[in-house]
Amino acid sequence: MSLRFDAIKGLSNGQNDVKASGQVKITAIFGENVFTLKTAREYLSDEGYKSLLASIRGGKKIDRTVANQIAAGIRQWADGKGVTHYTHWFQPLTGTTAEKHDSFFTLKGDGTAIEEFDGAALIQQEPDASSFPSGGIRATFEARGYTAWDPSSPAFIMEIGAGKTLCIPTIFVSYTGETLDYKAPLLKSLEALNKSAVEVANYFDKNVQKITATLGWEQEYFVIDEALANARPDLLLSGRTVFGHAPAKGQQLEDHYFGSIPERIYAFMRDFENESYKLGIPLRTRHNEVAPAQFECAPIFEEVSVAVDHNLLLMDVMDRVARRHKLRVLLHEKPFAGINGSGKHNNWSMATDTGVNLLAPGKTPKTNFMFLTFFVNTIKAVHDYADIMRASIASAGNDHRLGANEAPPAIISVFIGQYLNKVLQDIKERVGDKFDEQDEAILKLDLHRSIPELLLDNTDRNRTSPFAFTGNKFEFRAVGSTANCANAMTILNCVMAETLKQFKKEVDSLIEKGEKKEIAIMHVIREYIVSAEKVLFEGDGYSEEWQKEAERRGLPNVKTTPLALDALVTEKAKHLFESNNVLSHVELEARHEIELEKYIKKVQIEARIMGELCTSHILPAAINYQNVLLENIRGLKEIGLEESAFSNQLLIVKKIAEHIEKVSSLVTKMIEARKVCNVMENTRDKAIGYCTEVKEKYFDDIRYHVDKLELLVDDKFWMLPKYRELLFLR
Ligand code: ADP
Ligand code: MG
Description:
Layout: H1 3-12, H2 26-29, H3 37-43, H4 46-58, H5 64-80, E1 85-90, E2 98-103, E3 105-107, E4 113-115, H6 119-123, E5 124-125, H7 137-140, E6 145-149, E7 156-160, E8 163-174, H8 183-201, E9 211-225, H9 226-230, H10 233-238, H11 263-278, E10 283-288, E11 294-299, E12 302-303, H12 304-324, E13 327-330, E14 344-352, H13 365-384, H14 386-392, H15 396-399, E15 414-415, H16 417-431, H17 437-450, H18 455-458, E16 467-469, E17 474-476, H19 485-512, H20 517-532, H21 544-553, H22 561-564, H23 571-579, H24 585-638, H25 647-678, H26 683-712, H27 723-728
Parallel strand pairs: 1-8, 15-16
Antiparallel strand pairs: 1-2, 3-4, 5-6, 6-8, 7-8, 9-11, 9-12, 9-13, 9-14, 10-11, 14-17, 16-17
Bound molecules: adenosine-5'-diphosphate and magnesium ion.
Magnesium ion is lined by residues 218, 345, 475.
C-alpha cells in the first residue's frame, strides 16, 4: 500500500492522537525558563545586577570581571534547573536560528572533571561559521565569524525532551566586524530610531530620554497530519505543495474562520502555548484562520528586539511540539494553491520612557500634536522608502502570496482611515503655504477636537492594505509567515529614523529663521502631507483599478523578489543605511547577494521536486491507470463489442496520453532552462533567470497538466495525498 493510504487508515484509527499535557495556570509558569531581571536580582551581586541593568537600559559595556560574575550567576540558576549545556543562540541570514551546544563540563589540567561557565564563554564564542551565508564577506576579509552576547535579550532555557540547554542570545559578526545576522542591524536601527525620535519628541516633552519601537506580530500557520505530510515529498522539502488539484470544497463557505478549533489541534496549541509561556512569550490569542487547516496566534506586543526573539522561538517551539503530536506545522507563505496563504502582520509603534505610545492620539492638544508629528513622519517615511520596504519583505515564498487576491499587493501604500484622512486634508488646506499665529491656535484646538482619543474604534479596517493604521499602531501586513521580522523591522526603524532626522533639520532651520516652534512644526507637517499623500490609499488593494491607479501615481509595483531586492543596493539605500549606522555598503551588498542566493535555492529545490515527482509519482500513476483502461478496451473488443461500447475509455486514454506528453516534455524543457541558469555568473542574472525562465515559464504549466491527471486517474493509483485529505483530515 502507498504511504497515502496508510496515512488515511491511521487517521481513521486515531493512531496519531496525542493527549495534551494537563492544564496549568499561565501565571504559574510564565517566564520560568527565562533569566529575567527579577531572576538576575536574585542570582547576581549588586555590582553584577547594576551592570546588567545599565547594559540593557543604556547599552553600557559590561567589563570582564563583572561578566564573570554574571556568567556564574546565570550558571547557578541554570544548574538549579538541571541544565547541562549552553549555546550561543543567533539569527543567521538563512532565516532560521542557529545554535552550537557546548557542555559546562570541562577537565582541569590534572584531569579533574568540573563544570564551568565563565565570562569569556558568556561574551564570545566561535561557531564553525563557514556554512552560514556571508554573501562573500568572509571570503574577502576573514574566514571566520564569532557570536557576541547581546545582554538586551534575556538568556533562556530551551527544553527538548528531557534535555535542557541554556541559550545565550547573541549577534553574529565576522572578524572584520561586518554583521552576518539579522539581529545586529536590528539593534543598530533601534539606536538610530531612538536618537532621531527623542530629538523630535523633545519638541513636545523635554522629559523623554529614550524611545523604543514596539512589535506585536500575528503568526499565521497551517497544521496538517504528519503521516499525510510524510507522503508529500514537496511539503517535506520545500514547505509547499507544488501540485494538487483544488478540492471540491475549499474555503468558499468560510466555515473555518473563527469556528471551533478541532480537538487534535487544540491539544497541540495548548502544549506549544505552555512551552512558550515558560519561555516568556506572552501569547494571548489563538483562532482559526480563513483557509481550512489554517490558524493564527498573537502575543501581547513587546519591545521589538525581544518580540523578534520570541517570534523565532515560537516558530521553533511550534515545529517541535507539532512533531510530538504527530502533526506538521507549515509556516510557508503559500503551502496550498488556490486557498489563502499565511502572513505575519507586524504591528509596530514607538514608545517613550515616559510611558507614551507615540502613535496613539493623545489626551491634550500638545500630545495630539506630538501624535500627529510621528504619524505624518511615518507616512512620509513609507512614501519615500516604499521600494526599500518592499525589499524588506521579499522572498520566494512571499512572491506566491503578495497580490494573490488575499494578501496585500506588492504596491506599498498606507491606509489611515477616513477620519485621519480628513484631518490631514484639513491641515493641508487650512495651513496653506503661509501659516501664521492665528491659524496656529485654531488649528491646535481643532486638531484636538478632530482627533478623538478613542480613535481605536473609529479607524475603519481595510484588510487589503499592506501598511495600515489601526488606531494606535501601524500594521505592516505584507510580511511573510516564515520571515524573521527583524528584517522588516530594521528597515522600518531605519527609514523612520532618517525621516525624523530630516524633519528635525527642516523644523530647526525654520526656527533659526525666527519662526515659532509650533508654527515651524506645523509647516513641515503640511509639507510632508503634500509630498507624501500619493502613498495614501483607502480603496480595495486587491482590485485591478488600484494596479492602474498606483501606476498613474508613480508608485512602484515590483512583483518578484529578484527585482524587488534591487532597492537594497541603490545609492539612496546605501546612504540611508550607512548614515544611520545600520549597515555599511559592504554589508548591504552582502545581504543583497545572500537574499538572491536564498531565492535561487528555493526555486531550484522546487523545480527539482517537480521534476522528480513527475517521473516517480505522477507519470507512473497515469501510465498504470492507462494500462487498466487498455486492458478493459482489449477485453471489450475481444468479446466483440462495437467501439461505441468503449469510446469513453478511449477518450480517457487519449486525454491521459496528451497530459503525459505535456508533462514529460515540459519537465525536460524546464531542466534545460535550469542548466542555462546554473552556469550564469552573476547572482542577480541567475535569480532573474530562475524567476522568469524556470518558474514563470514552467511551474504553472506543469502543474496544470499534473492536476488534470489527478482528476482523471483512478484514485487508488494516486500516491500523493490530495488537498481534501491534507486540509480536512485530522
Ligand atoms: P487585531 O489586529 O487582530 O484586531 P489587536 O489590534 O488587538 O488585534 O492587536 C494585534 C497585535 O497588535 C497584538 O499583537 C497587539 O499586542 C499588537 N499591538 C497593540 N498595540 C501595539 C503597539 N502599541 N505596538 C505594537 N504592537 C501593538
Ligand atoms: Mg491585525
